[in-house]
Amino acid sequence: VKPAPFDYHRAVSVDDAVDALATTGGKVLAGGQSLVPLMSMRLASPSALVDINHVGGLSDVTVDRDRVRIGALTRHRQLELNDSAYRANTLLRQAVTSVAHETIRNRGTTVGSLVHADPAAEMPAVLRLLGGSVDVVSRERGARTIGADELFVGPLESALAPDELAVSAAFPNPPPGAGTAWVELSRRHGDYALVGAGAVVETDGDVVSSARVGLISVGSTPVVVDVTAAAAGSSYRDVDWTDAQALVEESIDPETDIHASADYRRQLARVLATRALGEATRRAGR
Ligand SMILES: Cc1cc2nc3c(=O)[nH]c(=O)nc-3n(C[C@H](O)[C@H](O)[C@H](O)COP(=O)(O)OP(=O)(O)OC[C@H]3O[C@@H](n4cnc5c(N)ncnc54)[C@H](O)[C@@H]3O)c2cc1C
Fold first, then answer.
1. Ligand 1 centroid to 262 CA: how many Å?
2. Is 116 in the pocket of ligand 1 (CB under 6 A)?
3. Core-most of 23, 25, 82, 179, by most CB within 10 Å?
4. How far apart, in whole angstroms, are the C-alpha atoms of residue 60 and residue 221?
């Protein structure tokens, strides 16, 4: 199937892009890896596309002590291959390598994935787990920052207004010594995960002092659960995550679809959360 007819605007600057969004009521075209298939299936029929691929200055990955900031045109693969981003923030590479296949990661943008807000996507959960944010701009209202807790409104629905362009996203670095991990299960490598889980665990000496887990494909938005209370005080060598599993189960609301039943997803969430927490704990403090 071919997309319905649309106007095309090739933006040359951020100002030009937000002008075009305001005047055409169109949609941003970034990597096109989600939008174009939706248009081809006629599940989306925007009247215009505002192509930002030729806007300069949107591809940078900036790594500092506190965070990794990426531009709207940073491709998943670019983030994956950036060694200084990995050293500062291990969870980014751990998770982004599970996003689709290399060919899709070569083109798809991480910021595009955040705005697209697919509850099965990895990077929205990572943004929430790390407490990150997205910077957006519009012609009428200027710039604002949207925190991850407000960004994901529902399935394929983010808090951006139709005339807003996301220009960058900031992923705070886990505290020094924190351990991180990402695990997921999909039918084939590169498919969307049936369930995925990421974890950030901090230790104080031998003892777990903080533990958080983020989950995908278990609700209408990515879910983050603070399971510190279930593990705090345990030695990192021997944590019993049973209470954490119960907290995870209380926080999720998976659905049955053609890929898996809700019960199977609930079971996977318990198992994968435990695995992610275990791996992150082994890496913490080392
Ligand atoms: C076969 C296949 C498998 C995939 N598997 C996975 C997977 O396992 N995990 C995963 O996370 N993703 C997966 N994806 C999606 C992929 O990660 C996309 O790249 C990503 O979701 C969207 O990024 P994009 O740059 O391609 O955005 P586009 O497709 O260009 O845009 C997506 C949406 O976001 C909006 N948008 C994009 N950028 C901006 C911006 N800067 N400001 C405002 N609005 C913007 C667009 O208007 C559109 O509504 C898969 C895609 C395919 C085709």
1. 25
2. yes
3. 179
4. 27
